[in-house]
Amino acid sequence: MRATTLQKAGPGKEGAHEEGLWAVAWLPGHSQLITGSVDETVKLWSAADDDLKCSHTYTGQALGVVSLDVDPSGRYAVSSSLDSTVRVFGLDDDKSVKHLIERQPTETWGTAFGTVTPDSTQLAVAGGSKGQAFVYKGSGEEPAQELALDLPQAEGSGHKERFVLCVAFSPDRQLLAAGAMDGSVAVWDLAAGGQLLHVGGLKGHHKPVRSLAFTPDSKLLLTACDDMHANLYDVHQGALVDAFSGHESWVLDVAIHPEGAVFATASSDAKVKLWELASRSLVQTISEHTDQVWGCSFSSDGTRLASVGDDKQVVVYSVA
């Protein structure tokens, strides 16, 4: 499986972001995606034609957007911005803010959708300097905090700050994983009320863990870390299965193909890499960006990959 460049939108393009891009996520299918930027906006893009076109710009994301996710129905997106505010907003005809979570400064970072029904929305939020991961649930304008989960201290981290950077739900919504600045990686069993699966967390990183992705069967977890590695863990055994090296700088994001056969990593070395999970091998190195690549995301049908970076570009690739 390899990626071929299809579309680009960057400086000089109508509707393009004015500053670096830090987050990207697809709506169901492969015709629309959203991007978040330091320019304090989220943009909705149409990728249905030969050319990427910005169809809507969401403003008000003060100080810049650090995280995005789209719910499985494609009706809602969630953003986390540096003003410590998490917003859930519409992606269809009604593009207004549906839910708003405001925390103290530095107490939010990454965010992800859990179970979403017509009556209730579940969200996870990386708690930043609070050293916790939060789970929210509710139907009102401000969802109620359901769980506050403490991260274990990473081995050998001493008294380093446990700034929580990223969260991810397992596809079956039974587990929640989080990664932190000191290399901590934790997994909780939500079906058991948020019980920590492994005392001390998953071992192997000692630098910031910036992104997490479960395999489609919810049994394995991939991590992206500033130690220039992406690690693969057996979630239930708590064992390090493999460590993938090849990037020349921090690994900033990791995304897995919906079929689970390959995964992508984005790095501050300005490269995107594709890896085959079964053979544990590097498949392809992509060099479309000229600055660090903060985000990568596969479309739900597996036919597209998108990447975004500090070069102000969003790049879309076909995957086959």
What would you note in describing this structure?
With 320 residues, this protein is mainly beta. The protein has no helices and 28 strands.
Task: Average the pLDDT over all residues and give the rounded result.
Answer: 95
Structural class: mainly beta
Unreliable residue runs: none
Euclidean distance between termini CA atoms: 5 Å
Short account of what is shown:
By secondary structure, this protein is mainly β. The chain contains no helices and 28 strands.
Question: What characteristics describe this protein?
Answer:
single chain, 320 residues, mainly beta, 4-stranded antiparallel sheet, 28 strands, 0% helix
Task: Break the fold down into its secondary structure elements and pairings.
Layout: E1 3-9, E2 21-26, E3 32-37, E4 42-46, E5 53-58, E6 65-70, E7 76-81, E8 85-90, E9 97-102, E10 111-116, E11 121-126, E12 132-138, E13 144-150, E14 164-169, E15 175-180, E16 185-189, E17 195-196, E18 209-214, E19 220-225, E20 229-234, E21 239-245, E22 251-256, E23 262-267, E24 272-276, E25 281-286, E26 293-298, E27 304-309, E28 314-319
Antiparallel strand pairs: 1-28, 2-3, 3-4, 4-5, 6-7, 7-8, 8-9, 10-11, 11-12, 12-13, 14-15, 15-16, 16-17, 18-19, 19-20, 20-21, 22-23, 23-24, 24-25, 26-27, 27-28
